[in-house]
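Writing this down once: the sequence line spells out the residues, with the fold written below as integer tokens. This is how one looks:
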Amino acid sequence: MNDDDRALCAATAGLLRAGSALALWGLGLSLTSGLVLALTGRSLPSATWAAFGVVALIGLPERYLAMRVRLDAALFDGLARSTIASGPAMDRALATLGLRRRADGTRPLADRVLGARQLMQRHGIAVIAQTVIFAMALAMQDSR
């Protein structure tokens, strides 16, 4: 791996780590919604109850996406620091762990970076959906 590839890996790892604020926000929304449902669920209007429930349910895939973004950040960091020798070596390790299918061909670094960015975007969409629905739940809370 050359210097440009290592720099791209380091930049990608940094970008993915920057998304950790989104992960905390999503977790906070999920926990708050669950707490609201647990403590006041019976007294909430049904539309508000459903909205808080949807926020909590979106939290399940959001947590998975957050974990995947964090894993990718660590993997790109390993590539940048050369603790992971190459993309194919990383693929073999992930296949051994059962996290990736064994592939015969090598995947270009640009494709790996694009996949990581798309994963981060999906995570962002999940958190935005949680935020919008949480705001709607708060707005509907007093409408009976």
About this structure: The two ends are 62 Å apart (CA to CA). The chain has five helices and no strands. The chain has one domain: 3-140. Residues 3-140 form one domain.
